[in-house]
Amino acid sequence: MANSSADPIKTPFHDFHVAAGARMVDFAGFRMPVQYKGIQVEHQAVRNNVGLFDLSHMGEFEVNGKDAEAFLQKTTTNNVADLDQPGKIQYSCLPTEDGGIVDDLLVYRLEDRYFLVVNAANIKKDFDHLSKYVTGDVNLVDRSPEYGLLAIQGPNAEKLLAQLTDHDLNNMAYYTSAVAKIAGEDVLFSRTGYTGEDGFELYIEPAHCGKLWNEINAVGSTMGMELVGLGARDTLRMEMKMPLYGNDIDETTSPIEAGLSFIVDLTKDFIGKSIVEKHKQEKPSRRLVCLEAEGKGVPRQGFEIFAGDEAVGQVTSGTFSPSLKKPIALGYVRRGKTKSGNELEIDIRGRRLPAVVVKPPFYKNASHK
Amino acid sequence: MNVPTELKYTKEHEWVKIDGNVATVGITDYAQGELGDIVFVELPDIGAEIAQMEAFGTIEAVKAVSELYCPLSGKVTEINSALDDDPMIINRDPYGDGWMIKIELTEPGQVEQLLDASGYTDIIE
Lengths: 369, 125
Hints:
Chain A is globular and about 60 Å long. Chain A is an alpha+beta fold. Chain A has helices spanning 14-19, 39-48, 68-75, 123-131, 157-161, 206-220, 230-239, 273-282; strands at 9-10, 23-27, 30-35, 51-54, 59-64, 89-95, 101-109, 114-118, 139-142, 148-153, 177-182, 185-190, 199-204, 226-227, 286-293, 304-307, 310-321, 326-334, 343-348, 351-358. Chain B has one domain: CATH 2.40.50.100. Chain B is of the alpha+beta class. Chain B starts with 7 loop residues before the first strand and ends with a helix. In chain B, the strands form two sheets. In chain B, strands 1-2-3-9-8-5 form a six-stranded antiparallel β-sheet. Chain A binds chain B through residues 23, 34-35, 38-40, 231, 235, 296-298, 300, 319-320, 322, 349, and chain B through 33, 36-37, 39-40, 42, 58, 60, 62-63, 65, 88, 91.
């Protein structure tokens, strides 16, 4: 879907959310469901069964042309050459000239083009940024308004989707895409997600959105599927230490200190590479860590992290983990205090909440990790 | 929206039930719905003296934190310790088992300043 500074955009599923009793909020220029029955119920449905998300606010760009691969090598940190056949997908980020992060994204290789999925709040920024680097035979097109996006997530996601398609889901690998008939319509979909669980994301033409919503819900209702809002999307991703752009990563954070070295390929050239390389060699002065707390209080973005009397960092995301039944936080902590097992404290409005650095993810039993 | 007529309300979405000189305090159905799933409630100690519209505690939901304001001046005589183990009682039964504190009123005349059900309904609609 497209971004806009005017009235919030309604996704093709808007009226279904309202009919289902969702609490709607404005998010990144879109009118989105933040919760239906409640965050805990929705979160547990995704961890233990299956949930359905409307993610139509996400942006989709298409890149084609002879020089598309070279263009993406330059503008993304991961190695696009690893997408050695159509259907492969990779997680990546768009680096700034200064070694920061413009956005994090998924890069899909399709038959004759690449397909980029970017954050709703960054659609215009990303498009303008990428446009600056277009040279040679490269077409960059914003396809956001042409797709509704539904995610089916949870250990029973395959069981649900299998009732709506003849496509061989059993042999469909994680981080791959396909085009197949789903509920009778041609749909581009992928085995991807932002929850840690198995699941699929479906990019649907607006004309077919109503039909797909109804068919998925008809099957889902026989399986105890829940509709899931942005509230539980946030708790689910946080339990997996999946970063949220704007909270945990932004133009001032390096992918190295954010723990995203695994999507930075220093064997190729990309924007800001020399700075990112320096971050890697010199070891960053801070790192994004997982903090598990004990006691009453919920860490929130901006709360200070202490080692004794010394302020050593700041919370970038925090919540009460529905799976662990504990307060959890992601935050940048300075070098020397980031080892797992380190005992720190989070300042909760003047009160200190004991917290320990733990290895990611917080939630260890996800069906995909 | 559920707004029982036998209760009094504040603009900050607390409810009060008056029983002689004792008032029971909680948050409204509207408030619990706005907050969403509640994960912690911090309540005062028994014996604490609280002035009208002074904060007596905090309530943490997954998405947000909110102060709790005391509708009337008084001394805390009882707190609902069941909320420690299961704060989502407030989501399920805000006017019943989800009550928070009982106070012995020091200035019962303050009741006149509270909203009745229709006055509160006007605020939330």
